[in-house]
Amino acid sequence: KTIGGGNALSFDGTDDYVGIPHSDNLNFGANIPMSISFWMNRNTSGEMHHLGKRAGQNNCSFQIAGTGNNVGIGSSNNWDVLSITSPHALTNTWTHVVFTFDGDVMIGYIDGTAMDNASGRTLGPTSTASLMIGGLNYGAKSDGEFDEVAIWNEAITAAEVTSLYNSGVPLAAS
Length: 174
Fold this sequence. Notes:
This protein has 1 helix and 12 strands. By secondary structure, it is mainly beta.
């Protein structure tokens, strides 16, 4: 696996982020299926908002954030849709994180292994906010690196998650 390789997005925890303008293809919320996959290498263990669509404090389609060895996905409808705990420290090591959502069940993976799941879940309202990586319009910015960020408008399978982790190469969109 070659993760990072000099092409990762690097954030200083202060004011860096990547903004991707709104697109109907990125309009997730309520019970709309989606999957998000990325590699991260955190520099510190403090609270960080990694990526998502959040226009303000209580206007959030979804966000992925974390503190310590925890990473979670939430929205303004439910800030704790699913929180997972890594079996290893998330600082100073590349870690593969995936969340899949079929419109009811959210599953969280660390390094190709399903860590937890929850049914009866929903995300926040759809939004025309930009998709942001490394920081959101509200909350603590990320201090670390991100690589191979990928988003699907479907719940990818456990086999696809394993393939992503083992290869370090993104899957083609279906």
